[in-house]
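Q: What does the predicted 3D structure of Peptide deformylase look like?
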Amino acid sequence: MQERVQLLLDGPDPAFIVQAGHPVLRARAEEYNGQLSDGTFRDLIELMRRTMYAAPGVGLAAPQIGLPLALAVIEDPGAHDVDVVDVRERSELPFRVLVNPSYEPVGTERVSFYEGCLSISGWQAVVARHRSVRLTGADETGQALDEIVTGWPARIVQHETDHLRGMLYIDRAELRSLIADEGIGAILGSEPSPTTAARVLGFDLA
């Protein structure tokens, strides 16, 4: 793993984001248990951070840069539209590193919103996800994580953790809601709630 990561670090910066169809996106990631030197681990995190920023995205899992390791970075500046902030519960999420993350639902409430992925470039679809989850795992220092995450941050956590299980958001999506990131799709996807999309495209919201 050390040599594999070093090849990534010696390659393009930001790193190349693999797209749907690459087998690494469908494999279960290897748990991180110190396979890398401290310096290489820090450099990998920073490469992932720069790659996420450049995309731009609000999360990036290691498999998305071709590395089957249970590691993800997340950060969201939040939405500028007040209605989006309120409806999607999308406030600012500071930069975080998730090592060997896992989640389980808290309560039964699920919410449906449009979601995209850097590894399925140009498309979005509605995904019903748990509104709140219990996040466990560790941060980059090895400090244990055990907390409740709600709203859009919970969606990001679920999306990135799913990547580490070999799952893409389209596996959970309402495929009839699929839209392109341009034209009318961009308009539908930008609305705070996908109610208009559900009406005009003919699908039910969870």
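A (community wiki): The structure tokens above were generated from the sequence. The mean pLDDT is 97. Helices lie at 2-9, 38-54, 82-88, 152-163, 184-190, 195-201.
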